[in-house]
Design goal:
Elements lengths: L1 H13 L2 H5 L6 H23 L7 H25 L46 H17 L4 H20 L4 H28 L1
């Protein structure tokens, strides 16, 4: 049964792979559905891992956990970020001659869940965040599966130091809040997938 669990764990990442490679082509609803389906597959794999059954071989369990960490982790992270609401900055009203000149309205992105809402409404706040997240989850899952949990601290330190100048220069709290939320969900998803992989491997 652990072999079946490893297959399900790998499938949980494969079904969510479109989120990791093409967020711009997906809506928030599509990302959430993929994340839900992937989470159900990973949950089934976790249940099978807890059963007293022959363990899955390392050559199957470890790659399945890495695939799940990248694919499912991406879907869960983007789904969490899609629940945030990003309000655009106010634009200055154009100077017009005449007694009445209406001020420009503050642009607001569509609310999450609407058909027009993008999968990640604030993706422009942190450039390259999706790609960095993929490599972050890949590194976290690999270090945990390799039995080197200290690598988790190294990955987070490198990411934090690399992002610090951008976060420091950012205006408002939107960027830093997205950084914290995305990092927490990403790390937890990758660590959870690695844990299921270790349990399947025995």
């Amino acid at each position: 049964m652990s072999i079946v669990g490893a297959v399900l764990l790998g499938l949980s990442g494969l079904v969510c792979a479109p989120v990791a490679w093409g967020t711009a082509a997906l809506s928030a609803l599509q990302v959430r559905l993929l994340a839900l389906f992937g989470a159900l597959l990973a949950g089934a794999a976790c249940i099978l891992a807890l059963q007293d059954a022959p363990r899955a071989p390392a050559w199957l369990a470890a790659p399945a956990a890495v695939i799940a960490a990248v694919g499912l982790g991406s879907a869960l992270t983007v789904a969490a970020l899609s629940a945030t609401r990003v309000v655009g900055r106010a634009t200055e009203a154009p100077v017009q001659e005449g007694p009445a000149s209406a001020p420009a309205a503050t642009p607001v992105l569509p609310a999450p869940g609407t058909p027009e809402a993008p999968a990640d409404p604030g993706s422009a706040l942190l450039r390259g965040g999706a790609l960095i997240g993929v490599f972050e989850r890949l590194a976290i899952a690999s270090t945990l599966l390799a039995g080197w949990p200290e690598g988790l601290a190294v990955v987070l330190a490198v990411k934090g130091l690399g992002r610090f100048p951008e976060l420091k220069q950012a205006h408002g709290q939107a960027t830093s809040e997205r950084f914290i939320l995305g990092t927490l969900v990403s790390v937890l998803a990758a660590a959870g997938c690695a844990g299921v992989g270790l349990a399947l491997r025995g």
